[in-house]
Specification:
There is one protein chain. By secondary structure, the chain is mainly α. The chain has 2 domains: 187 residues, Growth Hormone, Chain: A, CATH 1.20.1250; 194 residues, MFS general substrate transporter like domains (Growth Hormone, Chain: A). The chain is built from 17 helices and no strands. The chain is globular and about 55 Å long. The model has no long low-confidence stretch (mean pLDDT 85).
């Protein structure tokens, strides 16, 4: 078997396992925060937001740094570094005794994570040119599949064995990934030709000077804010709706979380084909608008079943946002700038995740848990109207 095929199979499995492990905590993290306790006079919603958001801040800051490390020392080393770091962080989470411990460990997680961009870079270098799309698409499919399985597995395991035991299982799974990476992955021997040095601010200026790119960055940021403003309090909202339901809360939360990812996974190809026919700008506007409407509808959900249906429909339209935005970026970016633009778009997404996670708990404290869905939907609807206005100009 050729080295690039062996790498693709190994990385696909690693990405699935790691993403499933990382996302599995979404189903129960607020409950674990409640178990360790919050300082007197400080709310669970506030600390849930802080602990969620701190990772995104450091993912955004460290992304370019780890990218340079991979370019200089090799992407396999960078992948192993990230996987070992994640293993250590989740092992330490088993022993967390306060929200301060959890906050620090989530901060450390944000600093050390970064195996996915490194995996994409490695396979971009090794894959034959005529197989590049299929190769990167396979890695993306593994990531989405892991995101589907993670919350469901995490919720069920949390109810069966306990929160700390789930952290230990995640650490063990990542240790297996480290061994698989060391044993099976072959690093690329290719080196990029020397080019004229371009500063970070020159790259930012390139994006800001392009109207379509500016608009797409706003769309990516708005979507991430909309998704992550919900996450710190979503488990608590499910708990609020589930009074009298016999299924355990963490398991129920995992099922509802997973339902959104499943519909997103199933409908991404549909929106891609539709975008080729109708134009990606039209698909992006429709996806933002209807995703915003269904996000708003979560405000009126009275039962877990109602919330489940709304989340499925929300995922159907969320599926059209990121592929459309990234396709529009690609069509408006020169070949020598695509890596830079996609890297900065990833940072914009991390900023949106940080802002959303931090503000979600604050909004819930100030206006109630249901109010976060109004803010979530409003971000998406306003962004769709903004893009329509830009097109008219």
């Amino acid at each position: 078997m050729s080295s690039w095929k062996k790498n693709l199979i190994t990385l696909s499995v690693i990405i699935f396992i790691s993403n499933a492990g990382i996302t599995s905590v979404l189903a129960f993290l607020p409950f674990f925060i409640r178990e360790v306790g919050t300082p007197a006079g400080q709310s669970l919603e506030f600390w849930s937001s802080m602990i969620y958001s701190v990772s995104f801040v450091f993912i955004c800051l460290m992304g370019p740094v780890w990218g340079m490390v991979g370019d200089k020392y090799g992407h396999k080393i960078n992948i192993n570094r990230a996987l070992i770091g994640i293993t250590i962080v989740f092992t330490l989470m088993v022993f967390a005794r306060s929200v301060y411990d959890l906050f620090f460990l989530r901060l450390l997680f944000g600093i050390l994570v970064g195996y996915y961009p490194a995996s994409m870079a490695l396979m971009s270098n090794m894959s034959p040119k005529d197989k590049l799309g299929v190769t990167l698409g396979t890695l993306q499919t593994s990531a989405v599949a892991g995101g589907i399985a993670g919350p469901l597995i995490g919720g069920v395991l949390a109810d069966l064995v306990g929160y700390r035991e789930v952290f230990l299982i995640i650490a063990a799974a990542h240790l297996i990934c480290v061994i698989a990476s060391m044993w099976f992955i072959t690093d690329s021997k290719t080196t990029a030709p020397k080019e004229e040095k371009v500063s970070f601010f020159d790259n930012v200026k390139y994006v800001l000077n392009s109207g379509p790119l500016r608009t797409m960055f706003i769309a990516v940021l708005a979507m991430q804010v909309s998704l992550f403003i919900i996450q710190p309090v979503f488990s608590l909202f499910v708990e609020l709706l589930a009074k009298g339901v016999t299924l355990r809360i963490a398991s129920l939360t995992g099922i509802i979380f997973a339902s959104t990812a499943v519909s997103q996974f199933l409908f991404t190809p549909f929106w891609g084909k539709k975008g080729d026919r109708e134009g990606y700008n039209n698909i992006l506007v429709k996806s933002l608008l209807y995703a915003g409407i269904f996000s708003l509808l979560q405000f009126v959900a009275q039962t877990p079943n109602q919330l489940l249906f709304i989340r499925v429909m929300f995922g159907v339209f969320v599926a059209g946002i990121i592929p459309s935005a990234y396709t529009i970026m690609a069509k408006n970016t020169s070949l020598d700038k695509k890596g830079v633009v996609f890297g900065l778009a990833s940072s914009a997404g991390a900023i949106g995740g940080a802002v959303g996670s931090l503000s979600g708990g604050l909004v819930a404290v100030m206006f109630g848990i249901r109010s976060v869905f109004i803010f979530s939907g409003a971000f998406l609807i306003i962004t769709s109207l903004f893009i329509i206005q830009k097109k008219k100009k």
